[in-house]
Amino acid sequence: MNKKNNSSLFSFQIYNDLINLFFPSVCISCGEVLNRHEAHICLKCFIHLPRTNFHMNRDNKVEQIFWGRVPIERAASYFYFNKGSTYQRLLHDLKYRGNYELGVYLAKNYAREIIQSEFFKSIDFIVPVPLHPKRLRRRGYNQSASIAEGLQEVTNIPTLNSNLVRNIFTKTQTHKGRYDRWENVNEIFEVLQPSQLNNKHILLVDDVVTTGATLEACAEKILASENSKVSILTLAYAE
User: Do residues 145 and 107 lie in contact, with contact meaning Cβ atoms separated by under 8 Å?
Assistant: First the structure.
């Protein structure tokens, strides 16, 4: 590197240091100031992330959600979600504060942690749970699409963003029980090109699984394609 490039890099680092001095980036989870090599979440919070390790276990708690409801191959979630915990802020930042890059970041780290397992084996496409166009315009992005993007960057499995669509606008699921959630999403999804999913193993991804109603509704539409299979992956599992 020549002296001019060295000087430019040095100036850029000084500029960043000044910005961080007056407007420091903080950990979304605990609020502590991040150092230069950290992003979104500090190393301490990342190390203590309440990981489920569900990808290592068949018949884990996420898979059990779908027993008797819809046939899936595998299911797993990155970490436990408990209301009131500092890690709840991660999902809030991703879903309501416009932090698209957080979804990409968390999904990349999750993929790196499980890529040596057999979880991604035979997956043909990654499909994010879609938002209705009205909510997409209001929010500006689909948080599930950010997760799919992060997974693709690590696994190189292609993502399908426009085949599974949401045709009916529904109210938020946040305060609904299991039956009400199922009733709220039943028959609102559609696969536009079913033949594209024939004989394919689809990895359906979302930010959090609670009752599984939305994921169940999506899986049913995908499984209507000939000889298709579905696995499920989410960032969080709500106990």
Answer: no
| Residue 195 CB burial class (10 angstroms; 0-12, 13-18, ≥19) | exposed
Q: Residue 9: what pLDDT?
A: 43
Question: For residue 177, what pLDDT is reported?
Answer: 52
Selected residue with higher pLDDT from 180 and 150 = 150
**Cβ(199)–Cβ(228) below 8 Å:** yes
Residue 185, judged by CB atoms within 10 A of its CB (0-12, 13-18, 19+), counts as buried
CA atoms within 13 A on the CB side of 220: 16
In whole angstroms, what is the distance from residue 38 CA to residue 41 CA?
A: 7
Tell me the whole-structure pTM to 2 decimals: 0.85
Decide: helix, strand or coil at residue 231: strand
